[in-house]
Structure formats: structure tokens, C-alpha cells
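User: Negative elongation factor B, Culex pipiens:
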Amino acid sequence: VFIAGGWRLFCQPCHNNLFSSAIIRVFTSDFFKISDKTASRMSAPPKFPGTGLEEVNVPGQAYLRDALSCCDDPLKAIENFQLENGILLPSLRPMLPLLDLHGVRRLDFHTSVLEELRDKLIAHINELGAKEGRERDRKLKELLVKSFPVVRVKALRPVVMCILRNTAHIDDKYLRILVRDRELYQDTDTEVKRQIWRDNQSLFGDEVSPLLSQYIREKEHILFDHLNLNNLFFTPTPKVRRQGEVVQKLAHMIGNSVKLYDMVLQFLRTLFLRTRNVHYCTLRAELLMALHDLEVQDIISVDPCHKFTWCLDACIREKNVDIKRSRELQGFLDNIKRGQEQVLGDLSMTLCDPYAINFLATSAIKILQHLINNEGLPRENTILILLLRMLALGLSAWIMIDSQDFKEPKLDSQVVTKFLPALMSLMVDDQVRNLHAKLPPDERESA
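Assistant: Predicted structure for Negative elongation factor B:
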């Protein structure tokens, strides 16, 4: 009965195609008309919790309750309600008894019509949302004003949510209603939630927190799982790592909103500061590069760490730092201007990523091996000095953010002049021992 009355929306006659005419008249003023007989009994209808049909002049639960309370014959009242609010298509009436013969209930019939019209209406709204210009915004706003009162009707909610999803700027009065009603909020699309989250940091934090916890659990599981020898921690490439579920979900939640991106970065800084867990640094870099892959220019164009992270990511992917990229990386570090020192905090988090630390350390060892083979000195290799510089910056990330003293740590000269030569000496000793072990026993003493 409720469906039959609620979807009085479909009562306009159509000579050729019921659906096409209904789509053409979607949410126009005629679309919500009711019969004069019904309207005469709807003067000042009482509000009924959970439905907004009366607000759009469609008799719903409240109207039917009053009609049944005041009538002498409830069955007759229900029959009249069905006649007045069913699909008023003259050519359809003679066909309904045929459905009865096949055991098809009127509720099932009206529900199927509702679903078909709803799908076509949603498709029409999406087509309208794909267009550009003020005319589109005006039409969507009109549709939202007329349809939003019925958002609590589950059968109609997808239509309202589709309009909201295609509306670029939603009025605060609608957003407040969505936030207050948990069921409506859960059914809201992410595109709409972004507009809610921008002015509600605590609500956004509640959404993001489980994802951050899941990310940390996954990283620690891979790192500490001693039974799985096939999926080692440092095996996946950067491209594969940022295709993970959590990173992709966060990127989708952020969209192209700079404000939401800044909120996530603040969450990561705060959690890193509280826990000293370096996996938050990994997520900071992976999230930025995921947005880079999606070409979200609104965000990557304003993040001062983007080009540095992009260059470092390319080096990690290729497992090599060539002259050109080393100059680019050094240029980023050398060209931080006065007043922009806080950028060092984000750069240090990027370099504190375990994957970055591992790459910098292994690259430094490779260069030392190269210097041994060519009888070179550590202080003469500029790329090695840069790697050590970045390694020191990454390892001091927590101290820098905690103290809010954004200064690049000075590289101790004795690391280059004493420690690295001593390390090279040990590496040479290892090579000699390995070579000595390969010689036949009778040649070892003479060697």
C-alpha cells in the first residue's frame, strides 16, 4: 500500500512508453501532483517520523494512517487509496487482473516499476552531472530541493544520493542532516562525504583511523613474518606497494581536496611523533605518489615535497642514483629558502621511510665497493656524500619534528675521513678471505 501511494509519481499517462515520459518529467512540478480528491484530505498533514513524502505533496504513511483512523470501512479506504495513488494509466487498468491470475502481487508490480524508473532516473541525472556550466548546476539544485525531503525513504534514497554526488557544492543544511542521521551518512557516497569531512576533522579522523591501523598491521606482519620467504619486506616495487588497499582507499577519500590531504598528513605527523613508528613515513610517501599516479594536480602541485619524492621514488625503482638525479635531489635540499624550513620536516619523513633508508644504505655500500675496485676515496665521491647527507636527514626525522627545530643535521667529517675508510678496509679483508678460501690448500700459505 505504501509503495502504491508513495509512487503516485508515476501516474501521468503515456501513450507510447511509460518510462520515457516519466524520465522527461523527472522532478518537475507536474511530477509531484496528486489528485484533487486526495489533496482535499491532505490539508496540514501531521509529520510522521522517517518519511518526507508529505513534504512533496505525496500521500504517505501519515496520510494513510489518518485515512484509516477516520474511515468506517478500512478495506474500502485502502481500495480508494490504491485507485487514487497507483499508476494512473488507463490502458494499464484492464491488464492488472492478468497479473492477479499469474499470482503477481500489486506490491511486486509497483516495486518493479519503481526500480525501473529509478534506474532510468539515476542514469538521466548522471548524464546531466557529466555536463558543464551553470545550467547544469541550476537543474541539479532544483532537483535536490524537490527530492531531498524523501531521502529517508529507502526506495527513493539512491536518486537523492545520485543528485548529491553530482552536485559540486552542497548547501550546509543538507550536509548537517546527513551527519546527524547515521543511516543516511553510511549510505552517502564518498564524493559527498568529502564535503562533510572538510569542516569536520574529528569525523574524518574516525574514518581514517581504522585504515591507518590496518596499514601498520599489514606492514608489521610482512616485516616480522619469518615463515614466508617469498614475500620479503623489501621485495615489492614502489609501484606495487602503493597499489595496496589502504593507500588506494585514502587516495579515493581525499580525491582532489587539498584540505583533506593536509589533514591526513597532520594525522601521520602526529602518529609518527607519538609512536616513532617509521611505517607512517612510508605511508606519507606512498600516498603522495599514489596521488601522483592519479594525476591529482590540485594536490601534487602544492605539495613542496612532490618533486623530491618523485625523484627519490624513481631512484628506488631503478635501484640506482645517477649523476642527473643526484643533482636534482641535491638541488631540492640546497634550495630550501628562509622561512620554508618546515619543508625539511616532511622531507625528513620521506627519507625516514624504511624503503628509502634501505636504498640509501645499500647504494652507499655499492659505491664503496666501486671505490675499492678503483682505488678511490670516499670524500671524492659527490653522490656518496649526498647519500650520507640524506641518510642523516632521514634518521633525524623524529628529533627534528619533536623539537620543531627544522635544520639539516651537519654531517660529521670523521664519517667520511675515518669511518668509511675503515669500513672499506674491512670490506677488502672480507674479499681477501673469500679469495683465500677458494685457493687450493697447498697454495694458501704462499698466497
